[in-house]
Design a protein that fits this description.
mainly alpha
Length: 257
């Protein structure tokens, strides 16, 4: 197994931040904007009924890949790959390296965007280091090393090309996105989901926000600006037990021992 980044790495520093959860909706909407991924999700999961469950499963396995023991990393990779083996349709397969790379790219890019927006600065050199360090986890999930864009600048060009090309939400993608932005949870009024909706819309690439038909008027822009101002201050003041994800704290205690 290729060595994964450990304490002291940029990937460890970024992924330990609980504030990255604020980018989860962005990553999901970027993923289902690809019609083949949207078809696979719609036909082989309960995403539309319970999108938060999928996000939680993805988060748990991603954190296991980032902070688990060698055995936990192998187990998480096997679970993900086993699920992917059964996701096959008329014109898609979850084992397609191109689709795997796009899902990986949405998670990497959303982590960087959320960190820079709500935690602190990340220099171009650090962003490149973070990107390079995520390749090991992507390789465990079936992405051939040759498929990864070489440097972070190449990665950004790849993202832009995908957003200008095959990544355009169809009716299925828009339906799945609506379930993310307004989860079907009974007895909860819609206004409770407004903060998450505004943050997700604000973090999305502008073209994709428009493709989903998300409103971005003065009220939304003002609320997002307030979040960008307030959340970093809350993160900086938060005690470690709230700021750092439990998996990272557990891994740091394990290594220290």
């Amino acid at each position: 197994m290729e060595e994964l980044p450990g304490p002291g790495s940029v990937a460890w520093r970024v992924n330990r931040e609980a504030a990255l959860l604020l980018g989860g909706g962005r990553a999901l909407l970027m993923q289902v904007a690809h019609p083949k991924i949207a078809a696979g999700v719609a036909e082989h999961s309960d995403f539309q009924r319970d999108p938060m469950a999928r996000l939680n499963r993805t988060l748990e396995l991603s954190l296991a890949l980032s902070f688990g023991t060698a055995a936990e990393v192998r187990s998480a990779a096997r679970q993900i790959n086993r699920v992917h083996e059964g996701v096959v349709g008329t014109d898609y397969s979850a084992l397609d390296p191109d689709l795997l790379l796009w899902v990986h790219a949405t998670l990497v890019d959303s982590a960087i965007v959320a960190y820079r927006t709500f935690v602190g600065p990340l220099s171009p050199v650090e962003a490149d280091a973070y990107y390079q360090q995520t390749k090991a986890g992507g390789s465990l999930l079936g992405i051939p090393k040759a498929r990864f864009p070489r440097r972070f600048g190449d990665f950004r060009e790849y993202l832009e090309a995908m957003l200008a090309g095959p990544v355009q939400p169809d009716a299925t993608g828009r339906r799945l996105a609506a379930a993310v932005l307004r989860p079907p949870i009974r007895k909860l009024p819609p206004f409770l989901f407004l903060p998450a909706r505004v943050i997700t819309a604000g973090l999305l690439p502008e073209g994709l926000r428009a493709a989903y038909g998300l409103s971005w008027g003065r009220t939304s822009r003002t609320l997002f600006a307030a979040a960008r101002l307030t959340i970093p201050r809350l993160v900086a003041a938060a005690p470690e037990r709230l700021r750092v994800v439990p998996q990272a704290r557990q891994a740091e205690r394990r290594i220290a021992a």
